[in-house]
Every structure is written in structure tokens, then in C-alpha cells.
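Q: I have 285 residues here and want to know how they pack in 3D. Can you give me a structure?
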Amino acid sequence: MLPPRAYFFIGLNIIRVLSIVALVLVFASNIVTLVHDVEAVNRFMAAKGSDVSASNSTITDMLNCDYIECVFNFPDCNNPTNWFSSRRDSTVPNQPAGIFWAVLNRLLIIGQTVVLVLSELGWPSKFFDRFFPVLGKDFGLGALGVIQCLIGAAILSHFVDDFTLVSAFFLFSIGCLNIFVGLIFRQGAKSKRSITSWREHAKSALPTHVAGVPVAPIVTHAPSFVSNVFGNEKERHSTASDGSEASTTSSKASLGFGRQGEKAAAMKGYFISKPLESLPRYAPK
């Protein structure tokens, strides 16, 4: 029977692996979509400048549509009716600078997937902690899930092929799962799934969590009045060599545990309570 921390570690790392797989699939599918869009633009520009397009009403409708269409049997000047025997709608809008924005959109999605994969791998951690804190180790998985959902929604909002469609839907589902996990574990999600923190916890002799409750020893500093009454050892030795500060140091550091130290503590509002004098119950009266 494994402790609950082990189940959390295994479950969070399974989600991490699924997230990396989804990001890799989206990376590959967007490259394929980018290639198809470029091919569609090249064929569209060729059809726009050809003489056959002016004599065919179907080709004229293609030039006036909202999105550029990818024609695979182009050109066949002997039989213009075969121009649209095999075609697929692209994601490039037929508007001014539509080609630029479509290509830029794919490049940005590819770059975001690369950054998210590196964030899931935890390398380089210092880079993310400094420049992208929401993807660093001090934040949870909620921000990562939101970015994954945004990427998936941006892809699913266009007409894409089956491979890109499944990859984007898978990434959107993993993003929703990361948001849910981030709401549960908050900023401790990445520390619970970290392999290095697991090893450090295994090396420690005392447990830090028992039944999900932190039991780590709490280190507290000594009260400030102790250093004021009894003085600092280093300060006492450093100031003892200086004659001008010897009197002030002796007044602060040489009170000791006697009556003078008790008076100095009482003047600062600290009193030492004495136990009540009493005899044990078995003592004879």
C-alpha cells in the first residue's frame, strides 16, 4: 500500500505526459496545416492570374469566396471541369493581408507549443521563474491549462483536417484537466509531481506530511529581548576592543542572569513568573 503522496505523484506525472503528447501532436498538426495553407495560396494565386479562370463561373466563385480553397487537380486546361474534382478549404481568409495573418497564427501556435513543452519538462527552470513566472515552479497548473485551452479553441475555430481536429480537441481536454488540477492543488501541484522534490523528501529522516497534514518542524527565532538583554557574543567581542564603546556594551551585554538582568527585563515589560510553592499529594501534612 503506497502513501497518498505516491498516488498524487503518479497521477500528476501521468497528466504531465498526456499534456506533452497533446502539445507534440498539435505542433505536428499545425506544421501540416501550414504546408496545406501555403499550397492553397500558391494555387489560388496561380488560378487568379490564369486566363481560364475568366471563362469559368465556378472558378470565379472560388476567387470570390471568403476562404482560399486548395485545389489539387490544378491546372488542367484541357478539361476545366476537373479543377474542383479534389479540393479542401484552407484556413487562409480571402481578404487583405489574410495570408500574412494566417501564417503568423500558425507560427505563433507552434512557438507556444514549444514553450509549453519546455515548461512541462521543467527546463530551463530559472528562465521561466524570471521571465514567465506563471509557467515556473512557484505557480500551479491553472495558467498552463488556460493557455492550452486558448490554443485548442483557436485551432478548433477554423476548418481543419481530421488529424488537426483530434489533436486540438485532445489539447483542449488536457487543458481543462490541468485547470481542474490547478484548482485542487494550487501552487503545490508542480512540487508534488517533481522528481527532485521526491528524492529530497525520501532522503529526509523525519516525515513532512502525515495523512496529508504537514508536520514539518517549525523553526522559530529567539525573542528579540534575549538579544537585547544578554547581547550578541560577536558584538561583545568586537566592541570590547574599542574603549569608546566599552561602556555602552557592558551596560547591554554584562547583565547576565542575576538581579541586574531581571531588572532590565522588567523595565522592558518582561517578567519571570515563579512557580507556586506546593507539596506533592503523597507528602505528609
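Q: Anything worth noting?
A: DSSP finds twelve helices and four strands in the chain. Confidence is low (pLDDT under 50) at residues 72-86, 243-251.
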